[in-house]
Structure formats: C-alpha cells, structure tokens
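Review box. Two proteins, two foldings.
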Amino acid sequence: MRARSSFFPLLVGAPLLLGGCVGLDAGSSYPDYASGEVRKKLLTPENQPDPSISLGSFKIASKACEGIDTHPITGKLTQDDFTRFLEKQGIPQPPVKARGNLYWFDFPGGKPEDAVRLRLAVLDDAEGAAADLHASLLDHGPGWWGVRRSNLAILAPKAGVAEAVAFALKYKLPCWGVMAMTDVDDVYVIPGPYAEL
C-alpha cells in the first residue's frame, strides 16, 4: 500500500484557507467613477487633502454633505425614511420588500444588465442595527460594506475600498448614516459627517 503524500492535505486545505480571506462574491459590478472627483471629498485623518484610499487612511470631508442634515437620529425609522432621503437627492428608488423586515434597493451597476443591490433591514433599535450590520459584514467577509442609521442597517455587496466609497458618495450614503467596511478579520468605520455612538 502506497503512503499518501503530505501534498494532498495542502491541495484540499488551500481553497479553504484562501476562501476565508476574499469575501463572498455578490456578482455585482460597480460603475466606474472618476477618482479625482472622489478624492476631492476625502481627507486624511489629520484633515489634509489627497489621502490614500485604504481603510484607516481617510475620512469623508464635511463638504461631501453640504446642504444635507447630518445630525444623529435616535428615533425609530422605517424603510420609507431611506426612500425619502434618496428622493431628496433626486434619486427615486422604490424598495422591493424581500420579506418581513428586509427591503432591496437596486441601483444601476457597471453593465446595463447588472444592479448593485443594497439590502435594508429594519431592526428594533440602533443597538440592534449596529450589531446586525457588524455581524453581517463579518459573515460576508472582506470587501462587503454597509451603512446604518438609528434602527436601519444597509448591507452593500463586495467592492474595493475606492469603488465602495465612490458609490456611497455618489448617492450621499455617508451623509445619511455611519459607513463601515470589512477587511480581512475586522470591520472599519469610515469616519464622515454623520456619526452615531
């Protein structure tokens, strides 16, 4: 009987090791945005221009949210509050009810047949929304990002940091709620004009 090579476990285990660091693929394709326009709305943590667009190296400048009320909301919200926010930005985006407390908002993707689907969960309170978004981001893995405001948590599909920030800025999402993104094994809050504890 021939002895098994020690190479066999490596072949079997490699996909598991590599798969744990890449994040689930959502099949979404984000549109391209001009990086120069995105950079104008970002600052270093020390309030200097032209930051590196990597987690922990930038924050969203207040000028990105000019004319938008960014004070924290503590009362209970519904999906209609997010819909009204989008409408005020000139983006009529009707939600689709997926089930009980879950709604989908589809935005144009990088290809005509693609959509970037944001999933909005209506939870009991702000603590529940923060915990739900944090757990969902960790479950989905690197590249997944989201936004939360009061008892609402929005999960967005996997993207590179620059893609996610560009998409979020286009639709003013960091002005509406707290933005966060998953790295290899942690969730990073992206500082911006809207903040909640």
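Next protein.
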Amino acid sequence: MDKENFLEAFYGCESMAQERKEKLPANPIEAQGLLIKAFYKKFGKEALPIIKEILTLQGRALGLRIKKKLADNRLSTVANAFSKSFDPAFVQIISISDEKFHIQGTKCPFGLENTSRELCEAVMAIDSEYFLTATDGKTRLEILRTVAEGDSLCDTRYSIKE
C-alpha cells in the first residue's frame, strides 16, 4: 500500500489525507496531537481509555523527572516549573499559590480545538498525572472550560486535594 492509499484508509477519506499532508506539525506536541486525533477519529470513544492510559504514563514520567529537579514538591514550585514549558502568548497564569494553580489558554498545544470535551479530558491525563506525581498525590485537576468543546478558551485549575 502506498503512502497516499494508507493515509486515505487511515483517515477515512482523501480530503482528510490531503489536509494532513499539508499541515505539518510545528513541534513534537502538535505531532502527538495529530496522532491522537487520528486515532480518536478512526476508533471513536473506544480509543479514549487507551489515550488516557498512555498519556497518564507520559505524565507520570514527566512528573518524576521534574520532581527530581525541584527543591520541594509544593504546588507553587511545581506550577512555576510547569509554566516554563508553555508559550505565554497563548497561556495566561491567573494565579499560583501553594493551594491553587489556575491558567487559561486560547490555543490547545495538541490542536484539539473543536473536537470533544471527552478527548480533552483523556489528553489532559498527561498534565493531571504530572502534577499528581510531582506533588506526591496532593493535587487534582479541574477543566472548567475547553477549546476542544468549542469554548473560546481553556480554563484549568489545579488545587490541593482536601
């Protein structure tokens, strides 16, 4: 099977294959997002537990890595380290404290805009597990709004579990 036929078969139609060939990912996270979206498009809701499981593992690995580099595991310390990884043109820090980390973003780094909330929740397992691991299981994630569901921005809050 040649590349074009593979893309057509995998993505389900020639126009989708053409669209994928034209939009090149700008970084590894966008490439991962393209793969996630293609997998979700092909297999639907059945893919969500697999996506969540794999990204949970990735989040745990990243959380363990950053935990070794930080002086302590307070939420504010972890949040400040995490904040260095995103583009301030698209993500605004609303607040950082030892009890809460609140951010809003206008662009999904995985490119999940207008897909589904459930896909966003599965993908956000990476960040949820990152914080959970780096803070020794003390944080929880709330997705208040998401561009994946068509909202104008993502509104996420990490807080210390009560």
